[in-house]
């Protein structure tokens, strides 16, 4: 079980100094097991602080964070933080910058070995992870540095998956990839969520991705959790997005303009494909 | 028309690798033109930009920039004509403050102090970052950082500005800021622009669009012409612009759509007309 609960969480940087900055204010939210949650907010809204807390990289100043049966508070010991971290796989921005081993297989099996698996066990886990991310066996003995950008990112993600996390935190996972690489990476996470029951938490600027993939969206602004809801609730209300310095997904913009011209949408479309389906239906029904 | 960049039969491979990253590419760019270059990761587009700036030397072929043939003797003169903005703003900062950073290039050219202060001030005003002159670059947002990087380029008054995925790490707002600013600056200084980008909607603004695939220039022309070729774009692993994406989806659903390129507002207008003509 990996349900996550934030209860009255506050976080300040440099507590007790003149430079104290309150980065998160009274965060209360529940992220249920096996869900796909997108966290959106402009630069400096507090979303990075939120996921650092979740990964046990920093402790809350006040309040508690529960992950399954483990709880983090301001007094948690490093070993308690470690227990939570073992449930969580964190894919940082540009994760391929952290590749270092001679071969793809060695790089992916480093994580499990570091968490106490034997070399043989780690290699089995690494091979499974390669399969999960769609890296061919023939690449196992290649240097990760000879691979394309998209493949390097897959190696880095496989390294995280080899540790069998229950929760996967993704910080802008498609930044810098070309459109095909972006599509494939997002499909990979969606598959991991659906088939492997991994709880996915996506931090993104791409409203289109949040709308298309998540089942819960958290909107952060100025250190506050200002809204939590389904993509439909969040993205069908453009004024709410603008007020929180977020861009409106392209699909929402087009749907709004089409509504002014007489089209009706139900449910509100979150992807261009869905929008086109509903538009086509209305054009066809008229011509019959 | 005056050619400011001319590339003829450029061939390049990385040491120890037989694959031609640039495979016999030739093209000319006119003075004052805005050219956008698209292609998937590894297609050779960044290598091409580096070859034009003399950051790597071709196996064979020729690059001529503003009348100078690029070689060991001319490389510094060629580079002085080109301002380069890279993908990751953090990798190109050298100054302790925003103003120091913009001054760096001028200092290297031994510009006297009074002129330098004036030029830095002017460049920062142009990118609307003058209020941040004494700040540390590290504390800025991504969009602000790239605007400072542009100020550093503008202060040198280059004839050519090359942006290598300069907006790809920015949030949508930051991306918008940088692109709008670039248009403004181009109007004012009439420089030539090469942008390498994955943002297909951004390319619609260019005068000409190049598609690079496996080291070859497979298509070049007006954006309207290339962006309406959805079959080619999808085959090459690229995105469709918003309007064309909707048209493509509707076509798959057996709705008849116009052949010519349409931006998203044109598609919306066309659809609304179709709907109202049915009633």
From TrEMBL, chain A:
This is Energy-coupling factor transporter ATP-binding protein EcfA2. The keyword Cell membrane applies. The keyword Cell membrane applies. Keywords: ATP-binding, Cell membrane, Membrane, Nucleotide-binding, Translocase, Transport. InterPro entries: AAA+_ATPase, ABC_transporter-like_ATP-bd, ABC_transporter-like_CS, ABC_transpr_CbiO/EcfA_su, ECF_ABC_transporter_ATP-bd, EcfA2, P-loop_NTPase. SUPFAM superfamilies: P-loop containing nucleoside triphosphate hydrolases. ATP-binding (A) component of a common energy-coupling factor (ECF) ABC-transporter complex. GO terms for cellular component: ATP-binding cassette (ABC) transporter complex. Its EC number is 7.-.-.-. Pfam families: ABC_tran (PF00005). Belongs to the ABC transporter superfamily. Energy-coupling factor EcfA family.
